[in-house]
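Amino Acid Chain and Its Fold in Token Form
===========================================
Scope: a single protein chain, as residues and as a discrete description of its fold.
Amino acid sequence: labelled as such and written in the usual single-letter residue code.
Position: the record begins directly beneath this header, with no further notes in between.
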Amino acid sequence: MSVREADKRVLRTPFYSRASELCQTNLWSPWKAYTTVDCYSYVEEEYFAIRNATGVFDLTPMIKYRISGPDGLAYLDKLMTRKMSKLTPGRVMYSAWCNDLGHVLDDGTVFHLEENLWRLCSAERHMDWLQATALGFDVEIEDETDDVVGLAVQGPTSCQTLKAMNLSCVENLKPFQHMSFDFEGTKLMVSRTGFTGDLGYELWVPSEYAEKLWDTLFEAGKAFGILPIGSHALDIVRIEAGFIQAEVDFVPALNVVRAGRGRSPFELGLDWLVHFDKPVFNGRRALLKEKEEGSRYRFVRLDIEGNKPASDSFIYNSKKDIVGHITSATWSPSAKKNIALGSVEMPWGRLGDELYAEIYYNRELKWNRLMARCHVVEGAFFDPPRRRETPPLDY
């Protein structure tokens, strides 16, 4: 089946029977051939489940590739911008991969499952690119998206919920580690990973065990405020964490229609993922040149005055010239700030630069225009210590 045909499918994830019973709003959206929940009840309720208790999100549509073979590590080192030799069995690594122009094709996580076996999770489908890069390497690549399901279990009581499932020593997992447990005759893999910037885990099992996993998890989490969450609540917390999203904060290089619309890791704030101390990787020459000559754009995190989200706004400098645009925006209930992610032309976007967002909002059929001052900030808008604590405290 071609990528185009695959994207036309509209499937139900193996968790659909459980999710549909709990979805009061009937708000669903397509995500890579599957239909998934936007909001179960109230976005606010789901948001605070993530920040105050345990929120559960269906990860099934995430694209998953199984990579195996004796040349797997060398292959991944060629594919990724990040040095992969530190990715030992039991570890997970976040990375990006680029085309020859140094533009990001996607970002995602690589799980080293066992000797000579890895799993790559990504937002977009990349089988053609992965196979082309694999020429000359003794590796096999298999799309296992439909065969493996996942649940993101996120929030301060997430570890307590997993301990209530009798997952022995799960509290000893450090960030970006994974371990496996026996579960109903199969293997349940638990990784300390997530897209919320909070304490959290991701659970992975074969698709035929989906309903059993859901039921067991929610039974264990009854005493810890567990709730299912949709994509709307997840979007708020990932912006608070400062995480970028493909097709929102950047266009993957293979999907770009106009030349120059792609972004390099440096232009997405991912320069820490580019390791020039390894000799060869896709896009290395272009990225080395960019590092020497400078980038076209800067990715910024903005604290915006007022309380009107700056979705899709233009960004202006002090001379009222347009120098960029907002890619993601929300009101942060935890930071109590109007926050946004954006892309600006160099050299703008430095700490202390005078920038403004042009915000339009509708009140009682009247459109209002607001020029709101933007303050460039470093790091995440919300970054609780529990995200890194090992073992996590009980809440």
Notes: The first strand starts at residue 11 and ends at 12. The CA atoms of residues 63 and 124 lie 7 Å apart. The radius of gyration is 21 Å. The first helix runs from residue 3 to 8.
